[in-house]
Amino acid sequence: MLSTSVRQGARQLRLVRNVAVAALANGSAQPIGAQIAQSCEFGSAALVPLKKTELVSLSQVGGNILPFAARGYATVVDGLKYAESHEWAKVDGETATIGITDFAQSELGDVVYVELPEVGATVEAKETFGVVESVKAASDVYSPVTGEVVEVNDALVDDPSKLNSEPFEGGWMMKVKVSDASDLDGLMDSAAYSASCDE
Amino acid sequence: MGSAPFGVLRLSRHCVYDLLRLEEQLLRKTPGRSWLVVNDGVKEPTVVMGISGKKEDLVDSEAARRKGVGLVKRFTGGGTVVLDENSILVSLICEAADAPDVPELFPRALMRWSKDFYDPVFSAHGDFGLSETDYTFGDLKFGGNAQYISKRKFLHHTSFLWDYDPQRMKCLLHPPKEPEYRQGRGHLDFICRLRDHYGGGREAFLGSLTGALDARGLEWEDIGLEAVRSMLSQAGGAGALQSTKRVPL
Where is the BPL/LPL catalytic domain (chain B) (predicted)? Predict the structure, then answer.
């Protein structure tokens, strides 16, 4: 089943995932319930192509089902800073909110467990601050900035899947009081990060 | 390629708790060096859970206590296994440079890479495949996998069922989530003994593992346990994570 939703308020296109195979013979497709909203605006978000091509079926207005080939995309949100290791940082004054990107969660697979630092701990830029488990793998996640952890997202303990479903919103991982603002200079903007994912 | 040859560490009947702690140190404290660690049999029968495992969901604690089986939680992901003298544990601790065909270190890509790595070892002995995250002959599991991914290095370890004791398997509860290919089969109905498929015997299997390194053109050298311990001691890093824990039953 292929599903995508567009959040008009945040102008984001959620990651297209799962593969829907459409029958191409006779120009008809087997509908699998897939819909892609085509009327969304992408003013503040970019789409980063994932390294895979999928055959999908589109339900058009009027009920016609048509097959077409499309690439999967991950969302990259403007206004955030990005690390090469696929974490994002949203800076608000002295505090940075940290999470993993849509690209990262797609590559990791379904997240089943998250380990976060303690509030009050010190994290260092480019060093491990936590662990996520997915598909039999535990993977380190790295802090884009140095500073003191002032808040962690406890909701991830009970529902680690938020990292997959809401990587930029409900899937945030920690908030850090940044001690060295120059750390942010070493991070990428959305355009540079998009380009790096496409390499 | 990495800057040094693969270190090949061959152990026998090593305590699995000590083995896992050793592996984590090799992962974190030997930059520029990759390892193949082979442990032929486990000293004391032990149930080993993954990093997120919950004893109450996965282990029949009463059965484990009765049978004298211990419990360890390891630092890697993945499921729960019973390890004993019948288990052969093989760990690949690799610099990314030694897996150049994996552009970014993510779990599914590494799982596929590992299947390719083991093709020279198993493909002549049956319908060898990667079923989700398990090594199988046909639809029968003979090897379970788990990984840890850290910066530009990863650990992929496998517990091979050379043989198994069905009574000890009763220490394991049916997991809350099972692979689709298991299709509801009982545990003993979806696993098989590697010894029943691998012609040539146990020693031949153990000897074949460095052949997989040769097949990839990877240089390797045998390194003894004392030399490894000395290397790790000199590396320091007292603050390195040690996430493997013994769990009381």
Answer: 28-210
Which residues span the domain enclosing A140? 5-198
Q: How far is A141 from chain B (nearest CA, A)?
A: 8
Query: A112 and B145: CB-CB below 8 Å?
Result: no
DSSP string computed for A39-64: S---TTEEEEEEEEEEEEEEE-TTS-
Domains of chain B: 6-246 (3.30.930.10)
What's the structural domain count of chain A?
Answer: 1
| In the block, residue with structure tokens 């004993």 | B84
User: What is the pLDDT at residue A34?
Assistant: 34
Q: Do B148 and A137 touch (CB under 8 A)?
A: yes
Task: Note the pTM of the prediction, 2 decimals.
Answer: 0.83
Query: Does the distance separating the beta carbons of B146 and A137 come in below 8 Å?
Result: yes
B134 conformational bin, left if phi > 0, alpha if psi -120 to 50, beta if neither: beta
Stretches where chain A sits below pLDDT 70 are 1-72
Q: What is the pLDDT of residues A155-186, one digit of tens each?
A: 999 999 999 999 999 999 999 999 999 999 99
User: Which of residues 110 through 139 in chain B touch A, CB cutoff 8 A?
Assistant: 110-111, 133
pLDDT bucket at B243, cuts 50 / 70 / 90: confident
Residues of chain A in contact with residue B77, where contact means CB-CB under 8 angstroms, are 113, 133-138
Q: Could you say which residues from 31 to 50 on chain B have a Cβ atom under 8 Å away from some Cβ of chain A?
A: 50
CATH label of the domain that carries residue A12: 2.40.50.100
